[in-house]
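Slide 14.
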Amino acid sequence: MSIAALGVVLDGRLTTTDAAGVQETVTANDLFYWPPGHNVKVDADAEIIMFSPQHQHSHVIDHMIEMTKG
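Slide 15: predicted structure.
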């Protein structure tokens, strides 16, 4: 499932790559909007607040947890 993400970075640094291959780096105090189809790389430990519909975003979180199991 691919959904958009809207939020703010409290600390750290993240880089996204969108479906067209365009990269964007966000750091502390940056607001962000990432369209559907984005990938996220955490460049430095980060704290973020995201504003996404819970019923959609919970699928993404569940997928991330499954992919990071050892």
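Speaker note: The chain has one domain: 5-67.
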